[in-house]
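Fold description:
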Amino acid sequence: MQRHFIKKNYRMENIELQPLFDNYHRRIAKISLKFKRYLYSQINWEARMIGIKGARGVGKTTMLLQHVLENYPDIDRTLYVSLDDLWFTTHSLLDLVDWANQHGISRLYLDEVHRYRLWSETLKNIYDNYPDMSIVYTSSSLLAMDNAKVDLSRRQTPYTLQGLSFREFLDFENVISIPTIPIETLLQGHVGIAMEIVKKTKITPLFENYLKYGYYPFFREAGEDFSSHLREIISVVIENDLPSVENISFDTVQKVKKLLMIVSESVPFEPNMSELWKQLSTNNELGLRMLYALDKAQILSLLTAKTKRYKYLFKPDKIFLNNPNLMYALCPVVNTGNMRETFFHNQMSVMNNVALPSKGDFLINDRFLFEVGGKNKSFDQIKDVEDSFLAVDETEVGFANRIPLWLFGLTY
């Protein structure tokens, strides 16, 4: 027997949108324009589709709402929604877009798009079928963004938001506002730059605080619970994000957790891969997939002598945790030397190419060679190398090619 289906002529009523607008209004009422992330001024906000990815808690939502507040005197001429809102369990994003189009709203800000089923296909349809509609969207699942079922590269302008730099932390805490300092400028003028800053504030205790909790802006709300909140974020990445994009079992999830603990206790970890895979009871292919997935998710950071290519996985030369805050959250005892290298690698990787050199600790932009250490660090290992420098901790102002470690947090 042949069945005939009649499509209901559904039209969304304004009253159905009330919960979304209420949430939007509550959120934007708390937004300040006083402090903006480094990425804010770099985004081409005129692009038709903008994708912003970044780890949980680095400030993507705040950045979206700041742009609304700064550009829409009448905030209801646009709309911000989070795709993890329960509203979307009974309503379609395409229905919302159609309503917005009919009511003269030509730009939508969509948060946490990875929480919406078939999100990449839906965004493609919006872009193709609503030529007057612009979309700015975010995702905290970096793995989901990198494994989208539909390639949006021809349609979108993508960006990645990192955590707070030390420079931003100082501004965020209302200590001092410092412009971004490119690496070349820093190397040439570090003495004058440092002297100007340290005469205005006590930099050492601020730097120590940053290393413990300053990378993620939510430290203000979390207070003493910061480390436990950060561990929860790591668990969400491993237990939810990773299985959603990789065909892995519960047993493999447990192996990923064990891998993270092995690395966190010995970072920067110089891996003996066969021994590591033996400890994890796994093979080289699955082990490398786990490592590179945690790197994409900004939990680990892999340092290699050659450029990383996620399509062709090869053994990393060193494995770091992504940033020092993760070290303090995961490690019972933080090794000072390892923490220094983790900070340097994390801060310098945002605006520069960082590789492992044949001698020394880090090679920046295929030119500048660095050794990282304490205030008594010597040039012995790199003394004969042109453009070589020491990044030294426990130092407020350096001299010649000895540069205070904290200054490398001002480069983004």
User: Anything to note?
Assistant: The chain has two domains: 14-160, 169-410.
